[in-house]
Amino acid sequence: MIPEKIRDRESGLTSRELLFLAVILGIAGSLILFALGGKRAEGRNAEREADIHRVATAMELYYNGHVRYAQSSAMPESIPGFLNSVPRDPRGEYGWVDNSVTGGNTSQDYCIFARIERASESGEPVYVVAGPGGVRERGLPTSGSFSLGDCE
After folding, report:
1. Of the residues 41, 64, 73, 96, which has the maximum number of CB atoms within 10 A of its CB?
2. Which are the contacts of 133, defined by CB distance < 8 A and separation ≥ 6?
3. Residues 28-73: pLDDT tens digits?
4. What is the mean pLDDT of the chain?
5. What is the pTM of this model?
6. What share of the chain is helix, strand, coil (3-state, %, to 5)?
7. Where are the domains positioned within the chain?
């Protein structure tokens, strides 16, 4: 037997019940977005590291065929014959150190770098860098900017 109060009430939710439901759903949605925020940054960092590895591999392949690295005063658009399009950072540009200067051994060096969305234990920014010595993470040089030697 159905109690009279329930039987007489119209079907559906009251405005109070709807408001309570909206508050609960809002809180749950906020918690989910907060939890996923760090994962998105981790995904962008993984993309940056993969991009830097891809450029480093193309530069090494170019070196094997030409006995020098591809030279450019700014971020190259491509690595001829090995990388049709140099990838772009998910939130900006990758850094490139000019290796086109005449004189010296600049054709025997290159430096590409990207700031990743994570700080070191001391709170300093962390970069992923690539040069003839491979790909690695490091802090910002004490000079405040990267040089060819900082990526080796």
Report:
1. 96
2. 151, 152
3. 888 777 776 678 888 899 999 999 999 999 999 999 999 999 999 9
4. 85
5. 0.73
6. 40, 15, 40
7. 14-151
